[in-house]
Structures are given as structure tokens and as C-alpha cells.
2-oxoisovalerate dehydrogenase subunit alpha
Amino acid sequence: MNQDLFPFLLQCLSSDAAVNNARAGGSLLHAKFPGALEASFVTAPKLSLPADIEPIPIYRVMNSEGAVEDPTQDPNLDQATVRKMFRDMVLLNTMDKILYESQRQGRISFYMTNFGEEASHIGSAAALSPEDWVYGQYREAGVLVWRGFTISDFINQCYGNAEDQGKGRQMPVHYGSRKLNFVTISSPLATQIPQAAGAAYAFKLQPNNQRCVVTYFGEGAASEGDTHAAFNFAATLDCPVIFFCRNNGFAISTPSKEQYRGDGIAGRAAGYGMAALRFDGTDVFATYNATKLAREYVLRENKPIVLEAMAYRIGHHSTSDDSTAYRPAEELEVWNTVEHPITKLKHYMIQRGWFNEGEENEFVKSVRKQVLSQINQSERIPKPDWREMFQDVYTEMPVHLKEQLRAMEKHVEEHRDHYPLKDFKQ
């Protein structure tokens, strides 16, 4: 070998320790191949088997009785904050029940409940800054509740009337709010995940950035190719984004065991070079602590993290689904009682003397009254002006859209007897 090349090869292929060993007559023990910088050389093959890797543990604060198992992990939130957490979960749960029945009555076209996942919404929202951007999937209504989205905002969107912030252009439960930094939900699975990585990268480039991005998705959406792209981009570009997976056990009717073979979704993080944390998604305090820790990490390190909230979807996937066809009623009963997130927080509050049964019953009645009253109002509000379907995509409407609008106006005028124009805002 050309002696002049030897030092260069050592520098390219080995660590400093290996260089010293080689110079002393030893062998190269630690390679520096560009694709695996930290791997060592061995002289016998050994398969890396999934069974050899310890599953990521599930962090929790409260047990099923609402008791804090390690006092150092109690976030020690004040009574007002804990009460807001509880009431926001109850509000979401109550609203879900009524709007689900509203769809069953044919008053709206579609609905998705959040039963069993209330703690993952409220706990994470409480740990974020209102300035952080949220890219939701379609089961994160509690994040909006926490940030101030009102009952009228929810119901007007589901009814697609002229008061809907989305101007009736989306299916029900596809919420969005510019004011609350909640990006409008899209129907296709996982499209929001690479968008969130991109938004986080843009934040990172801003001087003195104090905002992160959180994107929510289910374990089923994690099977989409968009998730891989988002993970890889975020990891390689060091983006301050929290990938928040709600692992609720079922991708519509497909159980987790048929979705993947690895250690859930958090188990994938290491392969992309990302941090991860798995926690009990029915425990609002574990969710709060995990999200708070994640937010601090992504902003301090300018790196992404995968959070995996382990929970159970108590309700049907949507009003188009019948979950009784693929899971037993006995299983549902456990998660709807002993392991329910609202029940756990109620026990916690009782132990601290913060719970008043009468007051909370009155609160539920008040929410029901507000929701039912708003439904009656929302049904009477006209649909948005149909001309608005041509607006808001461009700052200035381009020529081809102007031509389409004129053609539509002419068509509607000529056939106005065939259209329910009285139901639309004029």
C-alpha cells in the first residue's frame, strides 16, 4: 500500500481510538462509514432481533384510582387549572354525545367522537403555548376546547352554515382557527404530518424562535408514507416539532396488532434518530408532563420528538363505523369506567377535596342546554354564499376563476327554480 494513503484511510474509516490502535499494530474497531458513523467492527455475525430490544415503557402519574404513584411526578397544578381540565373534558364528552345523536337524526352528515381520548387532548394542550401551531388529524377537538373554540364555533362548523369559520367548505369535525393557531384539518390521513415538519423548520429559521409545532395523528396514520417522509425530514433538518401519536388501539376496524409488528410508534423514533416518550394517554397529568418535557426539548435542542399516548378509542371510529362488529362489549366497559380519563381525574379531585358532585351535575346540564340551544340556532343560519367557493385561494382571483364564477352566476340565474337559493346567504 502507498504509505502516503494510509493516514488518509485511517481518518476516513476509523475513530481516533481505532487510529491509535492501528498505529500500534492493532485492528480497526470503530468504522466511520458515512452511513453508520458510530458502528463498530465485529468478527462474527449477529442478527439484531426485535425480541432483543426492550419495549419502551409507559410513563404514568395516576393509577386507575386517581392516586399519584410518585409524588415527585405530580405537576401540582392549582385547583383552578385542574378544574378547567376536568370541565373541558366533560364539555367535550357532553357535546360529543349530542352531536353524535344529531348525525343519527340526519341533521348533520358526519361526526367523530373523542370518547376515551379526552385526557390526551386537554393534557397536551395545557402544556403547550397558545402561540405553538397545531396540525390536527380529526380527533383533537379538546385542544380547541382548551384554547377557546366555543360551542357555537364547533356546531356552526358541523352544520356548515354562514357562521362557520371554514365557510361550509369542509366536512363536519374538520375544524380550523387562524386565531387559535390550529391549522384546518384535512380528510386524507397523514397529510398534516410533513406539513408540520415544514412549518417547524420555518420557525427554526426565525431569530429567537420560541414557538414549536405539534402534529397529532393515530397509529393507523403512522402506516402512511407521509409519516415516514415527515419523520425523516424533521430528523435530518433538526425541526422543533412534536409528533404526537394517539395510539388508541384501532385504525377504524383494524387493531394495532394488524397495523404493525414493531414496538408501537415510539419504537420507530430511534431508527430516524429522534427522541421518544411513551405515556398513559388516559392520564391527563402524564400527558401534561410528557408534552411539557417534549416542548422544552424541541425548543432547546431544535430537534423533533415522538410522543405516543397509549389510550383506547371507546366510541366508534365515526358515524360510518360500527365497532361492535370487531370488539367485545366487556372490553369497552373496562375502558369506559375504570380506565376512563374523566373518572381518573375525578378521583384525583375527590382525594383533594376539589370535587363537588352537585356543581358538576349542574355544569353538565348547563353544557347540554348550551349545545341544544346552539344546534337550534345553527340550523336556522343560512348556508354561506355559494359564490365563496371561488374565493380565498388567491389574493387576487385569477382570470380562469373569474370566468367560472360568471358562468356559474349565469347558470344559477337561468335555472334558479331548481336551486334552494333561499337557504343560502345572499
